[in-house]
User: What shape does this take?
Amino acid sequence: MGLPPGRGPIPVSGIDASNDPELAKAAGELNAWIDYLLHPELNDGPRIYRYVHPKYPDEPEMGELPYRNPWLDDRPQEYETRSVLENYAADIGAFFRPAQAVSGISESLIERTYSQLSQGCFTWNKQESNDAPAGGDQRRVLDVHYPELHPARNNWMQMRKSWISRQDNAAHEFEGDFIKFQVFTENCFYVVAEHLVRYRAIFKKAGEDIARLMFGLTDKFATFNPFPEGGGVGFNFLSIVVTGLVAAATAVITEGTGVTAGVLLGSAVADMLGEAVKTANSTGPDSTQYQLESREHLRDVAKQYLDAVEKIESDVSWAINQLFASLRVEVDKLRTERMYEAVPGTGTNATSVPRYRDYL
Amino acid sequence: MSTARDSETPGWFGGAGNNEVHWATSSFLNEAEWQLRQLCDDQEQLVASLAEYRTMLLEHVEQARRMDDNNAERFRAIERDLPSGGR
Assistant: This one.
């Protein structure tokens, strides 16, 4: 529905159009509407006429009207004009704080760290290499999300073919433990990268949902009718719950035609959100219905909006706390799994990086 | 990432909001930074270990080359000692 008559958007500090263009647009329009509705004396839009005749102090307020009424305006001793949002005038920031909380995340800034985390070695296979692929060696590390792809194991084995000595056995044992340790360490880095994807996705989804609610509220402001037939049309949409993104599947590297490549943060986020939406059950706990029902008073519609955006902000906070916990759990699990037998046959596991000299 | 966490760099953090998200973000980035520090340390040690292995392999190659040279020289010496001079 856009802006109030004759008004332009009023930018909201902390909601940056370069990082969150849709949210900034929605916030600017909502801010313009709030400013418009808070000053009914300056326009002809929705307002409350409060009956203030001294003879009848207990008379209830007249109610909200969607436009100026000249007859009531001509009786200022009896009818006082008030804003439909007067209950919120003391804290307009409440409309924007949840949006500000989820705004400002820079994908390009996070990408710089993320892209370094999604560059592997033993979990990669590069096109320019003429080496044989990793092949079907029985010791190949496969029991991880991102398995061993690099041909080093085969190459090293070929290199040692003519090497007949006790050092060959030591080298064979060392290479196996080393590659396993390296593959698991790379997987640890990918876990951190995956958590950055989820972190970004949580903010992005929350921002999208808040923007939709903002547009829904401005629509309600623009089409206000206090006495709608059949209760009026409600604004609603189905969304996924951001808390569900904590464990959503994502991939930070891809493998195709024998070549691996890092996935850009933006693509990983888009794929993850797309998959989450696709698999969400509309009646299950992974989805939620946001709605703004028509009410007799716009302040009550605004209350629905405030409840919804505050819930989103809380969900984001909960989700990020869960990310914090799951990051530690997932990385620690991989650290445990990358351990190897320090001295073959003893059952004593080592947690430190394998060194060839310890195998001699 | 440690700079982002320490200075609460815009771009990594959202706005203040009602402060809930900000604290959660701080904890998460703190954990991520700590994990990355440990992993980078592991990776540095892995690189050092591989370099050590490479040095040992090069020594082995050098040793094998010397052994081959010695063997070749021994054969050449035998050849020289033959009455016909090897012909």
Remarks:
- The interface with chain A takes residues 1, 9-18, 20-25, 27-28, 31-32, 35-36, 39, 42-43, 45-46, 48-50, 52-53, 56-57, 60 of chain B (CB under 8 Å).
- The mean pLDDT of chain B is 88.
- The CA atoms of residues 35 and 41 of chain B lie 10 Å apart.
- Chain B has one domain: 2-81.
